[in-house]
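Sanity check

After download, print the first record. It should look like this:
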Amino acid sequence: MYQLTVSVDNANAGWLYSVEDIVKSKLKECFAVSALSVSGRRLYCGFGCEACNRAKLNAAVKEGLVEMYAVVSKFDFVKHNLALSLPSLRYDMLLHTLVAFDRENEYKLLNKLVSVKNGMALDGIFNFKMGELKDRWLEICNLTKTNGAYLYDDETYNELLRFLISAVNPKINKLTVCEHNGKYRITGALKNSMLDLSAVDVAELMYYLIDLAPLELFIDGSITNGELYRRLTGIFDAKTISTYKNKTKN
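Expected structure tokens:
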């Protein structure tokens, strides 16, 4: 029997929950199990499998760790170091965009940095092995704060997010957004499947789009929220399907 335990201080319990959620989706193919426990101020997650599946489990745990550091811990770090008095949605969109920024290079660095072994402390790795990444994150936080005055103007704000997202490796080439009864549907073709997501409000829609960073965005029908429409066109250069079809005919 092969066992692997990962821990974190309770203050960052969300980090470990994130790792467990990612690994859980792969436990079946690893023929593995997991369990959470608490001891003092630390939260523990144990993983176990037969020795013959050790490599598969280690690969799944490493994937969970890399994803967690690149998204969850980066979000916490950026939020802590980017105190701006922006409207809530505008601030959250900025945070999500900064987290997505340069993610391809950060995943490569984290894959080299993170090694899986029993007794890993997530906060220990973050505090003592991720200095280069944290320096990068702090630099972009400081640069954003230096230019914070421009973030209150819609046009310059959209231009900034557009610039940041242009440096994000897209997860999909083309996306279509349509609105129905105040909710939004996002569809597009992946390599081996179709993407079909529902967003209950503007915030959820924008978070999806920022994460997916499509090369092309199309609007099917009308968008009743004028500010959202300007965001879609200003940040993602969105085109309405009817306008796009007419241009391709001419």
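If your output differs, re-run the checksum step. Summary of this record's structure: The radius of gyration is 21 Å.
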